[in-house]
Amino acid sequence: MALSPYLYWPLAISGWLSVLAAVTVTLPYLLGVRNLTNGWPLTAEKALAAFSFFRYWRFWVHGLSYCYLYKPSLIPDSPSYTADKDITVIVPTVEPGNSTFGRCLDSICANGPFRIVVITVGAAMHQMAEEALAPIRRAHPSANIEVHHIKAANKRLQIYSGYRVKFQSDVGTETVAASLSASDCVVGIANLGEYPRFLQQCIRWERTSFRSNPRSLLSARAWRRHPWSMYGVQLATITNFAVLGDGLQIYLYLQTAWWADGQGQWGLVCLVAWMLLTKLVKLIPWLWRYPADIVFLPAYLGFAYYHSWIKLHALLTFWNLEWAGRDLEKINDMALK
Length: 337
What we know:
Helix 7 crosses helix 14. The chain has two domains: 5-70 and 210-316, no CATH class; 83-177, Rossmann fold (3-Layer(aba) Sandwich). It is of the alpha/beta class. Strand 2 (115-121), helix 5 (122-139) and strand 3 (145-150) form a beta-alpha-beta unit. Helices cover 62% and strands 7% of the residues. It contains 15 helices and four strands. The model is unreliable at 179-190 (pLDDT under 50). It has helices spanning 5-30, 44-68, 83-86, 99-110, 122-139, 155-169, 197-217, 220-225, 227-239, 242-254, 257-260, 265-280, 284-289, 297-316, 328-336; strands at residues 87-92, 115-121, 145-150, 174-177.
């Protein structure tokens, strides 16, 4: 169900009012200001309320929207497009010899697309891809899989090359680009890699956010078309640090009169419980289906806080564009041989 514009714009404005509250109330309090120019006193209670509004308004809007407005799109009985006639999947890879490559391609073939275009780097890697695809072709004899290569490792150029292949033959009306490597695969399966490559991937993704989100926030067109997303996605992604946010909330609570009077112990317990609960909401459907996985909650919460340091490192090195865990010079040298 689409959200009515009569509700969408007020929600978007309210989101940015929460930002204004944090900037004009919480930030001055942290800087030592205790009275604004109009004589309005700044207290820890007001600073805590303003910061909580900023942190959790998005949580409430997204949660209620999911519960009452979200409706999955079902496949129609007579779809306008079908995978076997209209879908081309482009798979850029620099590691076709890795086991993830075979699992990903097997997953894609199981969905029966019209064609799969694998784009790798150099003739030697092209041959590696052909060898890796041999068992896939035997398992899926009807799959239409092509392998092409370019001269240098560059995911954007690899995808572009795949599009060129698609449009030169002028078939397959829809194209899906599958990002594939030993550590990430987004078609059919989700293999995010093992330590330490997974952490390297996290840093790479966060660096991308710190480079691209500010550009979106400066786009007038994006503001006109997606005002809520500017607050709820673009700004939130680069400002949500669990360690800093939770730590700041606890600090502000400890400055309140409730705590000073010795009556705020249970309030602190409730605040900590609330902060942990908000981090677990997304897991509820999964834990409902797989309750035994509840034993992993401590590790999940630990990583949620550790991720703040990953984001901070990404922020301080956002200009680094290298692929995580990949030796591009070695790959390019091999492509030239």
